[in-house]
Amino acid sequence: MTIERLNEALAALHGGHAPVPRAEDIFIGDGDYTAIAAEFLSYFVTVAGLKPDHRVLDIGSGIGRMACGLRLFLDPQRGSYLGFDPVQEGVAWCRQAYAGQEHFRFEWVDLYNELYKPDGTILSTEFVFPVEASSVDLAIATSVFTHLYEPEIAAYLRQTARALTPEGRLFATAYLHDGDRPAPSDRPHLVFDQQDRDYPHRWHVEGAPPLSAVCFSEEYFAQLVAENTGRRADIRPGRWRGGPGPWFQDLVLI
Ligand SMILES: C[S@@+](CC[C@H](N)C(=O)[O-])C[C@H]1O[C@@H](n2cnc3c(N)ncnc32)[C@H](O)[C@@H]1O
Q1: How many angstroms is it from 27 CA to the middle of ligand 1?
Q2: Strand pairing of 164-177 and 192-195?
Q3: Do residues 94 and 61 lie in contact, with contact meaning Cβ atoms separated by under 8 Å?
Q4: Tens-digit pLDDT profile for residues 207-249
Q5: Given 112, 131, 133, 170, which is the most exposed site by the fewest CB atoms within 10 A?
Q6: pTM, full prediction
Q7: What percent of the chain has pLDDT over 70?
Q8: Given this model, what pLDDT does residue 88 score?
Q9: Atom of ligand 1 at shortest distance to CA of 87?
């Protein structure tokens, strides 16, 4: 039943039945918008156990790339989606694209981010997710912890732990490394060759803004998860570091 519904949603996505922003408005990175939506919807269902009646929280919802697949999968009567993001244009576009779909909500929160929202007025470390405790079946944070510092991630992990039902899960992506340093990469934007002087478990890309991509030691990240959620992180290496994937960034399931 769930897999049938997934296949229908994927067919609809590939058939162009999802709202897609204009290319010049997409601020969340390269790649085919709907192909990435389809890929991640499959992971949400087959890896994280998403069901049509689930309540989903999208942390850093951007310009609706994850929402568009979820909208075709979640049951309009029993499932729901809430996304939040500091980039007002992205949230405004989503609100318009999903107008009239009561089970889909997007909130703009003026969160500070050195790269995405340098004039933001709310610190992530002080932000309370706009959901009740134990009310979320699946939280997602795709390509968000790749743009935050440790205290922000720690705060978001605590908020996620509060939001999730006991059986609920977090599906996040990150760049993590094992051993002493990140794996070499042939993609210039992923050459993590700058080790932070004060936080040696964190690496950046030389010549790029620090938050354009962050890579943490896997051991450190697992500890951050354990300390802030009381749960064990299931880390599945992505292709970017030679892992089996098929996902590109590492998956972190909590
Ligand atoms: C690479 S984009 C990924 C967007 C979306 N998750 C996706 O996969 O399409 C990173 C997103 O994180 C958002 N972001 C940055 N700082 C944030 C914060 N403190 N809290 C929530 N989202 C944040 C950015 O505005 C941006 O939309």
Answers
A1: 10
A2: unpaired
A3: yes
A4: 999 999 999 999 999 999 999 999 999 999 999 999 998 999 9
A5: 133
A6: 0.97
A7: 100
A8: 97
A9: 25
Helices 33-46 + 2-14 axis angle, to 10:
180
Angle between helices 65-73 and 2-14 (to 10 degrees): 130
Residues with CB under 6 A from ligand 1: 28-29, 59-60, 62, 65-66, 85-87, 90, 111, 113, 116, 124, 142-144, 147-148, 152
What pLDDT was estimated at residue 187? 84
- State the CATH number of the domain containing residue 154: 3.40.50.150
pLDDT digits (tens, 9 = 90+) for 19-46: 999 999 999 988 999 999 999 999 999 9
Look at ligand 1, atom 9, and give the residue with the nearest C-alpha: 65
Average pLDDT score over residue span 95-124: 97
Is the omega angle on the peptide bond into residue 246 within 30 degrees of 0, that is, cis?
A: yes
10 Å CB burial of residue 254 (0-12, 13-18, 19+) is buried
Residue 76 has pLDDT above 90, yes or no: yes
Count of domains forming the chain: 1
CB contact at 8 A, 159 and 128? yes
Report CA(43)–ligand 1 centroid distance (Å).
Answer: 19
DSSP track, 17-60? -S----GGG--S-SS-HHHHHHHHHHHHHHTT---TT-EEEEET
pLDDT at 199: 92
Q: What is the domain extent for residue 42?
A: 2-253
